[in-house]
């Protein structure tokens, strides 16, 4: 799932810059940025927490 999130981010980033970042700031942009970047942040933190766990503690 993490790879899919970052793949989507990489593929759509150029369009995001040209369409979203270059226009006047609106409520729709605030909603877009909050949903897009909060999910990316969640994915990064979730992945870090999963990789930080010791596998011998999770398997019983």
TrEMBL record:
InterPro entries attached to this UniProt entry: DUF6533
Protein's name in the database: DUF6533 domain-containing protein
Organism of derivation: Rickenella mellea
Cross-referenced Pfam families: DUF6533
Residue span(s) of domain DUF6533: 2-41
Top-level taxon in the UniProt lineage: Eukaryota
């Amino acid at each position: 799932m993490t790879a899919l999130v970052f793949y989507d981010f990489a593929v759509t980033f150029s369009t995001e810059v040209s369409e979203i970042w270059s226009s006047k700031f609106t409520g729709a942009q605030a909603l877009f940025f909050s949903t897009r970047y909060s999910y990316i942040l969640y994915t990064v933190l979730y992945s870090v927490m999963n990789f930080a766990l010791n596998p011998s503690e999770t398997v019983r």
